[in-house]
Structure formats: C-alpha cells, structure tokens
Design a protein that fits this description.
Layout lengths: L3 E2 L4 H4 L5 H4 L2 H9 L3 H17 L2 H6 L4 H18 L4 H11 L3 H10 E9 L3 E2 L10 H4 L3 H10 L6 H9 L3 H4 L5 E3 L8 H8 L11 E5 L1 H11 L3 E9 L4
Parallel strand pairs: 3-5, 4-6
Antiparallel strand pairs: 1-2, 2-6, 4-5
Helix pairs in contact: 4-6, 4-7, 7-8, 10-14, 11-14
Length: 242
C-alpha cells in the first residue's frame, strides 16, 4: 500500500510536531533547519531512554498523574537534553553509554536513510523475535493483531499487556515520541531470528511495509487509546542489504 511521505521542508514539518514542540514553533523551526532526520531519530530514542532513567515506566505503572509526569520528567529531560546542544558524534557516544544494545542501535541509525512518513497501522509489524513478553505467535502478525491480543488477554499473565494498557492512559506522554520503523519489514522480521530464539517452526510472519524498531509498546498503546488507523513515524530505508 502506498504510504504518504511527510514533506521534509521545515515549514511543512511544523504540522507534524509533538504537542510540546508545538508550544515553541520558532525554536522547532530553527532546530529543523540545522538537524538531519537521522539526528531527530536519535534524539527521539535518547530522550525516551533518559526518561526511563528517571523511572517514568514504574511511575506510569503506579498510575501517577500524567500531566505531572510530563511536566516533571519528559519536559525537563527534553529541556536538559536540548540545552546541551550535542553534536551528532556526541549523540552517538551517548547511545553507546545508555543503550542496552548500542551496536544494533547505531547500525540502524547509521545504516538507513531516514525520513518521516505517515503509515497505516495495518502496514506495521512489531519487533521480532521478542517484543516484551508478548507471545511469539502474536508478534509474527501486524500491530493491529498485537493490539487486539493486548485488549483481550489476561493482564495477570503478561507484564507487557499490563504495561501497554497503562501506557494507553498517558497520551500526553506517549504522543511525544514517534516510533522508529525499518522498511521493508523483512529487514528485521526474519524467520531465522524466530527459529534461533523460539525453536524451528513454520513461523507465519506477516509481510509488512515496515517493522517497528523502537516504540512497539507505545505504538500499540496509542492504537488502544486513540483508535488510530495511521501514525506518523520515522522510517529508515537501509542503504544496503542487512
């Protein structure tokens, strides 16, 4: 299915900013003029990772006030991060310091041509071979299949189900972060990965336009909470075969 690219002209991109970014469009415009989409993808990833270091996930699970969490964690992390004016090389070094899998992350950041696109959710698949503790038979489908499972499953059996349901109650937070997606989905949705982790089987991996590389839980939560049919993403097209 043909996807709708987001114009990378800075003036046009102002329409696609997160809620916090819209509060200061002049600063955002100046930032866009001096930043590549690759850097935006890295920023998006790092700011969420830094929020996690501030215990945002545990506080979400506790059901604390979303507006307070956004103000005291997300916005403060964003402000502190941007005040440092990291160079691209410094951002990559920060990825090496705080990522649980920096080699993989940097390979994707550096090995893809990144742009913004609006994608229909049926054309997105989750990360495999694992997406939290969701069953492997579920994550071989597309994101709507994952959302349906999360909606119907027993939350006592799966931490990811409990977490995603909680996230869906925090649109003011999750709407600040776009998913990062690799296209085509087969770039990372490969049967070899499923066989290596879950055992050899005729895994029926649904072909998708893109595979979410970062933001599986947040994207699923937005589908549950907002009934999304499409979502704005960062799309990475590999420069060469992975």
């Amino acid at each position: 299915m043909q996807q709708e690219p987001i114009n990378n002209n800075p003036d046009d991109n102002l329409k696609y900013q997160t809620p916090t970014e819209r509060l200061n469009p002049k600063a955002v415009k100046n930032s866009l003029l001096n930043m590549t989409v690759t850097e935006e993808v890295i920023d998006n990833y790092l700011i969420w990772e830094l929020c996690k270091q501030k215990d945002i996930q545990r506080k979400i699970m506790q059901g604390l006030d979303g507006r307070k969490l956004k103000r005291e964690i997300v916005e403060k992390v964003q402000e502190d991060y941007r005040s440092k004016a990291y160079s691209l090389s410094e951002k990559k070094e920060l990825v090496r310091e705080i990522s649980s899998n920096p080699k993989y992350r940097l390979k994707n950041f550096e090995g893809c041509n990144w742009k913004k696109e609006k994608i229909e959710i049926e054309d997105l698949g989750p990360t495999i071979p694992r997406a939290g503790d969701l069953p492997p038979e579920v994550i071989t489908g597309n994101i709507p299949k994952v959302a349906k499972f999360v909606e119907d499953a027993d939350p006592e059996k799966y931490h990811s189900v409990r977490y995603i349901r909680k996230l869906a109650q925090y649109p003011e937070i999750i709407n600040e972060f776009r998913p990062s997606v690799l296209s085509p989905g087969s770039t990372i949705r490969q049967i070899q990965k499923m066989n290596r982790v879950h055992g050899e089987k005729d895994w029926q991996i649904q072909e998708t336009y893109g595979a979410i590389d970062d933001g599986n839980h947040r994207t699923t939560a937005r589908i549950l909470g907002e009934g999304l049919e499409e979502i704005e993403c960062y799309i990475g097209h590999p420069k060469e075969e992975y």
